[in-house]
Amino acid sequence: MTSSGGPPTVETIAEAAGVSIASVSRVLNGHGGRPDTVRRVERAAAELGYVPNRVARSLKGGRTRQLTFAMPDIGNPAYVSMVRQIQTVTKPLGYRLLLHSTDAVAEDELDVVRSLADRTSDGLIICPIRVTDAHLAALATASGPVVVIGSLPEGAGVDSVRADSVSGAMLAVRHLVALGRRRIGFVNGPADTVPGSHRATGYRSALAEAGLAPEPELTVATDFSVEAGAAAAGRLLDAGLGIDSVFCANDQLALGAAHAAHDRGLRIPEDLAVVGMDDSELARASHPALTSVDLGSGERGRLAAEMLVARLEPAAPAPGGPASGGSASGGSVGRVTVAPRLVVRASTAGPGAATVRQEAARHAPPPERVAPPGVDTSAVCAGSAT
Amino acid sequence: MTSSGGPPTVETIAEAAGVSIASVSRVLNGHGGRPDTVRRVERAAAELGYVPNRVARSLKGGRTRQLTFAMPDIGNPAYVSMVRQIQTVTKPLGYRLLLHSTDAVAEDELDVVRSLADRTSDGLIICPIRVTDAHLAALATASGPVVVIGSLPEGAGVDSVRADSVSGAMLAVRHLVALGRRRIGFVNGPADTVPGSHRATGYRSALAEAGLAPEPELTVATDFSVEAGAAAAGRLLDAGLGIDSVFCANDQLALGAAHAAHDRGLRIPEDLAVVGMDDSELARASHPALTSVDLGSGERGRLAAEMLVARLEPAAPAPGGPASGGSASGGSVGRVTVAPRLVVRASTAGPGAATVRQEAARHAPPPERVAPPGVDTSAVCAGSAT
DNA sequence: CTGAAAGCGCTAACAT
DNA sequence: ATGTTAGCGCTTTCAG
């Protein structure tokens, strides 16, 4: 017997339809054929429940039509919105998306980059939490197109999309200062990560700008999680530093901080104003709703995906030449920065604004971006990308 | 030239090392060889940065060592914890996990099951939100092992792990009744989904058990999201039904409900007790912390993964025979139910308990499962699996 | 329009 | 221990 057991293959179909495997392939790929042949092949395929073996197809074609997205933490809503936006651009193009949670382990990140070489996916979007020399080396020699979501040194030779979290942090702190807060705590994630160090820089710059002396004990660095936020804010509050507000490096930390404040009987924002970052769904879900700096997670995901597919499909090639292909080998390296926006909500708005919010909220949808009275009329403030 | 351009292949290495491709393959797979040969091959491979083409390897071996997990919503923390637990069992075995968010679209779920036939992954864990005849048909003819996380009719012929959400819902409602609440609202997800209908059943049973008449207007069905929860709870509260508590079909809904209550100036739990479901991190992050029914998401993920790998690797085959392989063709069909547990927190505990909690929370880690005074001393109540 | 045949990169007989 | 070869399932020349 020629084709037995196992799932049907082109050969099985060919036999059933009485044609050659070449005809089967052609028909199944819509490459024409005599009406009669087409009909017979399609019938046989349908009857036998034929599904092309994608692995074989990939081996032959050299492409898998699969893309990989590697993020530090699948539980972080900011990455979830990146995933959603990436999907919206890749799915219509017929790509499958492989999701990889690296848990912020550098070695795991490197593995992901290297695994591009195993031809399992055609391209990669990665959010490295740290960028070491090893990362740069791996990225430089990556065997397929890569787009980094994060800050890379100039001339890294890889497409990237970054948030301007330095400006974003400044937006947050300036907002607190404008509200009259002077003892501004900072709950950061790990300080040795790119986001962590940038946010710390922005925090310090904004303080300096406001003529406030930096006090190291006002900063607590931990981990990007709700639990860490609660613990860190707790320490800050219990230390008797007279904190009147706290800027948190992401919404999870801010949620934890709000929790710690509540546990201590503090009112938000009266006793403690809280600002988060990422403007994830957590910010809206929290009570009071969190003022947060939108770093454009979804937007960054979308842009990264667009840059990646541009490398993959030289759809509308520039009239200049046939440049395309692997990471930065063809075409010039892209480097986009997404500007941050401050979204003001009840966690920093005064009691007056809080009342307004509450009133309006009786009628869905609840209002967003309510400006605190007499402070800032445009609640959404774009930061300058530096 | 024999091997040029492109990435190095076994042939490239063979030439560089001066051996045959078979030797390259053997050495690289640790199948022995003369020390000298091994050294030369390894050196050549390292120098050329050789990475085996996994697609070719899969085509040859018939397995990809990739597994797929399909869930309705990647933004739901309950699924995130499933992902984490699945990883803990599959990763050590060398499997890669492909994550797929179906957005609760039935057609997408069917596609995922069918796509098992394209040989892209060796097995599938799926959480269908609805189980139609089409689902059962697709599952029955799946061309690889599948484990369903969810309730399947008896004799479905597929391994499954289910939560007992009927009992879980009863646990929640009984708890509210024990607390003296009588006007218990119910914020459900879509009623035509399996989780939705089961939770509704549990809600009604527990009411009946307590001698409370069912009032259809106390139930609002929407969508499993924070926004939907806020909107639904808002309608419930604005309808003047005298609601004193609300049971929500998941934590996202509960968070939304809590938000709606706050917006209306209601205190939790004094004016409105709130119970969620899934005991996700949202329950802890919320303020006040949410009482929630733990449906064992992580546990279900772990069990499903274990059942799946058991099909994949007949590691320790039962002495009976060599039964194994595809979904339920070999070996008997597994069907496990995970018992629910009620986790009591401040959103239902009386003011007294809330104080206790608040006190204790000053010293990390914050206490969990605080029993409301005089109601239930064992805060964690296992439900009977029916 | 159709069929025969090559070959994607790899592994595993099989032969030496 | 090593080399030769077949073949996984598919697409795509190349003849006819």
What does this structure look like?
The structure is a homodimer of 386-residue chains. The N and C termini of chain A lie far apart (69 Å). Chain A is an alpha/beta fold and 386 residues long. Chain A contains 14 helices and 13 strands. Helices cover 41% and strands 14% of the residues of chain A. The first copy, chain A, has a 7-stranded mixed sheet, sandwiched between helices. In chain A, β6 (184-188), α9 and β7 form a beta-alpha-beta unit. The longest helix of chain A has 16 residues, at 194-209. Chains A and B meet through α4, α5, β2, α10 and α11 of A and α4, α5, β2, α10 and α11 of B. The structure holds a DNA duplex (16 and 16 nucleotides).
Dominant shape of chain A: elongated
Tell me the number of helical segments of chain A per DSSP (H or I, 4 or more residues long).
14
Query: Rounded to an integer, what's the Rg of chain A over CA atoms?
Result: 26 Å
Poorly predicted runs of chain A are 317-328, 352-386
Main sheet properties of chain A: 7 strands, mixed
**Average predicted confidence as pLDDT of chain A:** 87
How much beta of chain A, percentage-wise?
5-15%
Order of helices and strands of chain A: HHHHEHEHEHEEHEHEHEHEHEHEEHE
Oligomer: homodimer
Terminal CA distance of chain A = 69 Å
Percent of residues in helices of chain A comes to 40-55%
* Biggest β-sheet: strands ordered side by side in the sheet of chain A: 7-6-8-9-10-12-13
Count all strands of chain A and give the number. Answer: 13
User: Which structural class is indicated by helix and strand composition of chain A?
Assistant: alpha/beta
| Biggest interface found | A-B, 62 and 62 residues
